[in-house]
């Protein structure tokens, strides 16, 4: 049986380092008429179409996107798959939003059929938006994780997901126990972690919904299963932080609650990280933990403004990634997310150059997951997970682009500021058109 060969041609953009500032030409590789040769789902070669195309075996299928901008598939490092019908819920901040909308909706995932239908919708929606890898919260029900991973496997995507662990301060239908949460997580790890492209994330929801016993169980899962990820929420909302203080009176601060149970580390992702004190920033930095910036969510739930400069640019730099946080977040699109990220930073007197935003959505988020060289860049050996973008996708974008002559930086800024799913022409998963 011969190997499966195809090629994708267009304008190629991939990063090689973190952009030092606007227009940092050394941070990326751009080929105006480039081609990606795909063999068995992985990138076999990348280069000038004029050099590589003539060397392809006769009859090799070539998808040509003459003015499409081909970048690595987007990576979303924090999203809730059971919140597709929570998104756009009116008028509440975090704790009320959880009780009034989220915990009601998530109970429906006890039904396997409901979970399966939502997994299909969710994967469709991610791919329509150019997202090819995501770090995903399921619900407390193990079946929700099964449904999600099964769907990801069918599509050929590489996803990271986990069963939410929550054994208090939630409705009975949405609670596990320290023991059942441990057992069910362990079974899911055995079934799914490292099965093809799927990876597991131990997922204690946040300190408010886990007893000390459960956080200890989460720490044990982390320790006992090298290579699994850990995801939770940290320091999102002021009332949340006050509640954590009351629930854990012995902890030095919110971060310390997780630290005590061995939940910090280079495979640990902490959603939000808005209201941290200096000691917390130091602990996240020392432990190489990742702070996840979720701008549309932070604005929509009214939580506060992420301070990128303080976290990533200080004496104790914290690794940072970017994410949608649907359904607290309001868009599945990483382009929209970058646009809101830019505005959040503007409000803090900071900037987000287009190159930095596109780096974050691709190579930066891949590095935050320890997956550099596998996803997030267009280079030999990587999975051929790609997205084809069109900076003239809408009348407003096309009109704006009339004033831009071949400046990549400006084109990227138009894409992130005005773009969304309409700017995604195609999404490739392992070289297969999957939008
Ligand atoms: N904190 C605990 N659970 C959640 C959630 O589902 N969404 C957000 N945004 N914050 C949380
Ligand atoms: Zn979240």
From TrEMBL:
<dbReference type="GO" id="GO:0005829">
    <property type="term" value="C:cytosol"/>
</dbReference>
<keyword id="KW-0862">Zinc</keyword>
<keyword id="KW-0479">Metal-binding</keyword>
<dbReference type="InterPro" id="IPR014311">
    <property type="entry name" value="Guanine_deaminase"/>
</dbReference>
<comment type="similarity">
    <text>Belongs to the metallo-dependent hydrolases superfamily. ATZ/TRZ family.</text>
</comment>
<keyword id="KW-0378">Hydrolase</keyword>
<dbReference type="InterPro" id="IPR032466">
    <property type="entry name" value="Metal_Hydrolase"/>
</dbReference>
<dbReference type="GO" id="GO:0008892">
    <property type="term" value="F:guanine deaminase activity"/>
</dbReference>
<feature type="domain" description="Amidohydrolase-related">
    <location>
        <begin position="70"/>
        <end position="432"/>
    </location>
</feature>
<dbReference type="InterPro" id="IPR011059">
    <property type="entry name" value="Metal-dep_hydrolase_composite"/>
</dbReference>
<dbReference type="Pfam" id="PF01979">
    <property type="entry name" value="Amidohydro_1"/>
</dbReference>
<dbReference type="GO" id="GO:0008270">
    <property type="term" value="F:zinc ion binding"/>
</dbReference>
<dbReference type="InterPro" id="IPR051607">
    <property type="entry name" value="Metallo-dep_hydrolases"/>
</dbReference>
<dbReference type="InterPro" id="IPR006680">
    <property type="entry name" value="Amidohydro-rel"/>
</dbReference>
<comment type="pathway">
    <text>Purine metabolism; guanine degradation; xanthine from guanine: step 1/1.</text>
</comment>
<comment type="function">
    <text>Catalyzes the hydrolytic deamination of guanine, producing xanthine and ammonia.</text>
</comment>
<protein>
    <recommendedName>
        <fullName>Guanine deaminase</fullName>
        <ecNumber>3.5.4.3</ecNumber>
    </recommendedName>
</protein>
<dbReference type="GO" id="GO:0006147">
    <property type="term" value="P:guanine catabolic process"/>
</dbReference>
């Amino acid at each position: 049986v011969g190997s499966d060969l195809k090629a994708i041609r267009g304008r190629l953009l991939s990063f090689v380092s973190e952009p030092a500032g606007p227009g940092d030409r050394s941070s990326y590789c751009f080929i105006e008429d480039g081609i990606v040769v795909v063999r068995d789902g992985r990138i076999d070669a990348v280069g000038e179409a004029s050099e590589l195309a003539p060397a392809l075996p006769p009859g090799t299928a070539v998808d040509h996107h003459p003015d499409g901008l081909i970048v690595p598939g987007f990576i979303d490092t924090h999203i809730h798959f059971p919140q597709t019908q929570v998104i756009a819920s009116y008028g509440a901040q975090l704790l009320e939003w959880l009780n009034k909308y989220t915990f009601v909706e998530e109970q429906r995932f006890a039904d396997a059929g409901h979970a399966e239908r939502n997994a299909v919708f969710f994967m469709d929606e991610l791919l329509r938006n150019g997202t090819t890898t995501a770090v995903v919260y399921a619900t407390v029900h193990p079946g929700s994780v099964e449904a999600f991973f099964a769907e990801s496997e069918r599509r050929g995507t590489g996803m990271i997901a986990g069963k939410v662990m929550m054994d208090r301060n939630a409705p009975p239908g949405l609670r596990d126990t320290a023991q059942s949460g441990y057992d069910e997580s362990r079974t899911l790890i055995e079934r799914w972690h490292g099965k093809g492209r799927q990876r597991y994330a131990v997922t204690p929801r946040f300190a408010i919904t886990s007893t000390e016993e459960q956080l200890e169980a989460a720490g044990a899962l982390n320790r006992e299963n090298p290579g699994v990820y850990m995801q939770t929420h940290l320091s999102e909302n002021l009332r949340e932080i006050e509640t954590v203080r009351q629930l854990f009176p012995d902890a030095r601060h919110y971060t310390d609650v997780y630290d005590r149970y061995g939940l910090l580390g280079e495979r640990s992702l902490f959603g939000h990280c808005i209201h941290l004190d200096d000691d917390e920033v130091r602990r996240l930095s020392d432990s190489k933990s990742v702070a996840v910036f979720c701008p549309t969510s932070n604005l929509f739930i009214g939580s506060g403004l992420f301070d990128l400069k303080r976290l990533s640019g200080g004496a104790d730099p914290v690794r940072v990634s970017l994410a949608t946080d649907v359904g607290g977040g309001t868009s599945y699109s990483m382009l929209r997310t970058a646009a809101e990220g830019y505005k959040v930073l503007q409000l803090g007197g900071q900037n987000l150059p287009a190159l930095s935003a596109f780096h974050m959505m691709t190579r930066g988020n891949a590095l935050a997951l320890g997956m550099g060289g596998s996803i997030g860049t267009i280079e030999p050996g990587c999975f051929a997970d790609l997205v084809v973008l069109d900076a003239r996708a809408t009348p407003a974008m096309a009109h704006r682009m009339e004033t831009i002559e071949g400046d990549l930086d400006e084109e990227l800024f138009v894409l992130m500021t005005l773009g969304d799913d309409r700017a995604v022409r195609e999404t490739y998963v392992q070289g297969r058109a999957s939008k």
